[in-house]
Amino acid sequence: MPVPDVMFCAQQIHVPPELPDIMKQFTKAAIRTQPRDVLQWSYAYFYALSNGEPLPVKDRLERPVATQKNDTGLTPGLLKILHKQLSEKETVEISDLQRKWKNLCLPMEQLRNLLRLGNFAEGVEWMKFFALACSALGGSLLSSMKHACEILTNDPEGGAARIPYDTFAYIYSYLASLDEEITEESTEKFLKALKEQLRIWLPKEKIKQQ
């Protein structure tokens, strides 16, 4: 027996009152993030939304990085998303990192290269991986540290991009240790000089804040 045609009217269709705002925020997030695979990213977005996790959304629309290779998908904005999602744990499971990486539509080969470079066998020490990712963005140690500071800072955009000294020293020391041309002595000398500068500068900064 054929199924009878069913007529629907506006009064019969229930639209949750929060749906329009959810879709509006989703659309704005997609435009701001510009995912390569909209379907994959959309799944990650609503999964995170339903579980109260940090959303895979950039803070702002990014311009292409001038020093970035054409075949490199990672950007400062995407790395900042990963940091928000994964930095709560000091050590991250590789499967979790792979899932978050895939949800941002990033090339898996790049992830494998970073994992090999860091010699991560089981768990991934997040700040070490973060440092390696910054080096993939920057190329040089100086530009890598610039990216790290800009991603980690709580300063407003365009500000000084300050981060805690211990965090800076950890990232700098780790990346320097991977460069055969940088000796441990030169690293210690640089960080010691930087710390002395901070001791001179910080009292002046406190006076300004008062």
TrEMBL record:
The keyword Membrane does not apply. It comes from Podarcis muralis. It comes from the Eukaryota. Keywords: Cell projection, Cilium, Flagellum. This is Ropporin-1-like protein. One of its GO terms (molecular function) is identical protein binding. It is found in: Cell projection, Cilium, Flagellum. One of its GO terms (cellular component) is motile cilium. InterPro entries: ROP_DD. PANTHER family: ROPPORIN-1-LIKE PROTEIN. Belongs to the ropporin family. GO terms for biological process: flagellated sperm motility; sperm capacitation. The keyword Cell cycle does not apply.
